[in-house]
Structures are given as C-alpha cells and as structure tokens.
Amino acid sequence: MIAYFNNDFLDKDLVRISPDDRGFLLADGLYEVLRSYGGKLFRAADHIARLNYGARHLRLPQGDFSYLVPVAEELLRRNGLADAEATVYFQITRGAAKRSHAFPAPQPPLTVYGQANPFDEQAMLRRLETGVAAITLPDQRWARCDMKTVGLTANVLANQAAHEAGAAEAILVRDGVLIEGTHSNFMAVFGGTLVTAPTSNYILAGITRKAVLELCARHGLPVELRPIFASEFHLAEEAMIVGTTVEVTPVLTVDGRPVGNGRPGPLARRLQALFAAEVGRPWPLG
C-alpha cells in the first residue's frame, strides 16, 4: 500500500512517525474520512471545509487543507482504487516536539498522513437492506465534539459496548437528549417528519447528515431540527444512523425495544433511494 506522509508518497511500511509526535502523545490532531464511489470522491469540498474548521479551532498554523483533494485522488490511483469503492483517511497533528501541554515554540512542521483503503460496500448494503440494532449510553465525550479530533477514547469504549451487546452502534445521551452515534449522526421520524438535533459543540456536523438534509429540502420531505428526547423516543416511527460509512442505515431496535414496527420504514427507504441516486448507485438493491 502506498501512503502519503509529509509531502511524499511512499510504501506504508516505510512511514515513520516520531514518538514525540503530539498526535501520539496528546491526541493533538484532527482526521477526516472521505468516501470514494467508483473513484469519485463524495463531497470532498465539504470534508475539507470541516477539516479547516477544526484546524482553526484547534489553532493549527496551516488554515487550508484543500491541497489534500488531489492527494486523495492520487492515493486512489496509486493503490489501484481509481475505479473502486474506497475510503481515504487523513490525519493531521501539530507535529513532533518535546512533550508539554502548551503549544511548542517554535511550531514544528505539521504531521500529515493519508491512506486509501478498499471499502466493503456489499457489507454496508446488507445493513442498509436489513437495518441494525443500537443501544444507548451516557455521552462521556468532551464538550467540543464539533471538531473531528483523534481523541476518540470515549467513542471507542461506547462502540465496543455496542458490539458486545450485539448492536451496530451506540447512541449517546446527554442531558436526556439522544445526541448522535459513536461514528454517525442520529435521526428519527415523528409524525412523518424527519427529526435530528441541530449542530452544536456537542455534535459533529456530518457530511452525510448535510447531504440528507439537502435531499429532504430538494424533494419536499419535512424536517425538524430539534433535540430528540429520550422520554419521547417511544413515539418514534423510524430511526436511522447516517454517516460516511453507513450512509442511511435504518435502526430497528434500541436497547432491545423495536422502533415503530421494527422494520425499515418508508422515509428511510425514500432517503436511501435518493442518496443512491446522488452517488450514482442503482436502487433498489437486487
């Protein structure tokens, strides 16, 4: 596999990251995961805008990472994925310096790493068709979830708990509100209206979330941006997780209790069809 590392393309096994790197020592960095459909990057500009937003708030010295779009395309090409289903991962840290909590002075060069990987689309499509189970857990993350940082310990623990419970995702609950998943945004349907929490410092502004909301606006599907309270969730007709690697996946049960009739609902199916058209995939499956 060919990776990208600090302005060079090289064999991934030859990449050497300093043990003094602040991403390794302090989780002082950001990441992005882009989806490629048949070699075409999906909403790359939105991903870069989110990365730039995180860089400003993390106070990384370089403000614009637009140059990573052609890097992503080159990674796909060099790894034989130019016409394939794939993901591209980027990670940017503040660089290598003597360990201290304050920013290093002078600022070292940023560490910029990227890799492309094949994506198992068939496994995802099976989940889109059948739906998944989820659990709820208290949200123990920090208060700046709007930045896509590499500090994911709370997400890892919650997602592991979901896997141990036989579920695909954990929906995190803060102050009685179902916020989002460990690696996805969360949506539910009440009275035929798609409901999802508005973006804030507690929620990542998901790229797929943005695409779904734009599709709803374009096709006249009702949307309400408001908190989804745990106390009302028993009234939900449908639920779904949305994200780069899950697209629009119906959630059939939460904490072992069925959502609605316990089957993928009509709005989820409608959004799946619209999203498939957006990325150029035949629909329905089969």
How would you sum up this structure in a few lines?
The chain is of the alpha+beta class and 286 residues long.
C-alpha-based Rg, rounded? 19 Å
- Global structural class: alpha+beta
Which strand-content bin applies to the residues? 25-35%
What sequence of helices (H) and strands (E) makes up the elements? EEHEEHHEEHEHEEEEHEEEEH
What's the CATH H-level homologous superfamily of the largest domain? D-amino Acid Aminotransferase, subunit A, domain 2
Under the CATH scheme, which class of the largest domain? Alpha Beta
- Overall geometry comes to globular
- Say how many strands there are: 15
Q: Summarize the main sheet.
A: 9 strands, mixed
Low-confidence stretches: none
The CATH architecture of the largest domain: Alpha-Beta Barrel
Which helices and strands occur, and which strands form pairs?
Layout: E1 2-5, E2 8-11, H1 22-26, E3 29-37, E4 40-41, H2 44-58, H3 68-78, E5 86-93, E6 111-118, H4 121-130, E7 132-138, H5 153-164, E8 169-174, E9 177-181, E10 185-190, E11 193-196, H6 207-219, E12 223-225, E13 238-243, E14 247-254, E15 257-258, H7 266-279
Parallel strand pairs: 7-8, 7-14, 11-12
Antiparallel strand pairs: 1-2, 1-6, 3-4, 3-5, 5-6, 8-9, 10-11, 10-13, 13-14, 14-15
